[in-house]
Design a protein that fits this description.
By secondary structure, this protein is an alpha/beta fold. It has 9 helices and 13 strands. The protein is globular and about 55 Å long. The chain binds adenosine-5'-diphosphate.
Amino acid sequence: MIWNLGSINADNFYYLRHLPAPGETIAAHDFRQGLGGKGANMSVAAARAGTRVMHIGAVGPDGKWTVDRLLEYGVETQHISMIDTATGHANICVAEDGENSIVLFSGANHQITTQMIGAALAEASPGDFLLMQNETLGQRFAAQTAHTLGLRVAYAAAPFDAEIVAQVLPDIDLLVLNEVEAEALEKTTGARIDALPIDDIIVTLGAEGCKWVSNKAKTVQSFPAYPVKAIDTTGAGDTFTGYLIAALDRKLSMPDAIALAMQAGALMVTRQGTADVIPDLKDIQDHGFD
Ligand code: ADP
């Protein structure tokens, strides 16, 4: 089972002729609201990859629909607290030429307390996974608690924050990050990825696939991506990570888990949207990757 301490956002898309200039008011000609946030995306991906996932998070009264949607997608939601503040959201202006501008507000995601996290993890069992990203609070407490309880701790270092990475580093077993984040981490720690005290590190490389650095076995293996025609790369990394941890939770070997996660990531970039369009196992099977 996966315990995912993660953000939940409402993604509000406003479609406009052009982006507003300072002081300008523009009427949007279309509006769409979807479920987003790295945490929610990973929970949905893990559920669609066929494993049990409990989301640990917080939303405001305006976010009840996000919890309902997670539930509908097979995510367990008993540890999503309803608190008296705005739900995290991203207001995304999309202009006709494809240019966008985004305002992010972390809202309830930054009101998650150690009590909430502790209450959830008290129900976890040794061998379960704790998964975290960087859009909430409490990562350090969660990592330490989970480690003490015998959970496996997986961390997606995005959006990259050097201070938080340094805090959780001693308690993580598996780190997932993209190339830019890997470079930032090496710069911060002054150490190469393969010298960090973490058993497994996966560096995703977009259309180039990924590499697996096993510091236990002292090996580095590269995995080429599955070729697809990409139309929207949003959420590829979140889909990859959710699938990877779910596959490991289902006891697949690391190479098999990576292959499945890359197939899910590849299908995801052929789709427009975030959590709502993350592929499930049947989509992957139907596509027939070789
Ligand atoms: P992030 O969104 O965090 O930057 P990546 O872009 O590295 O993450 O994507 C995560 C994974 O999704 C990659 O390792 C790869 O397997 C898959 N993927 C991403 N973009 C493509 C693409 N254009 N073609 C095929 N697979 C892709």
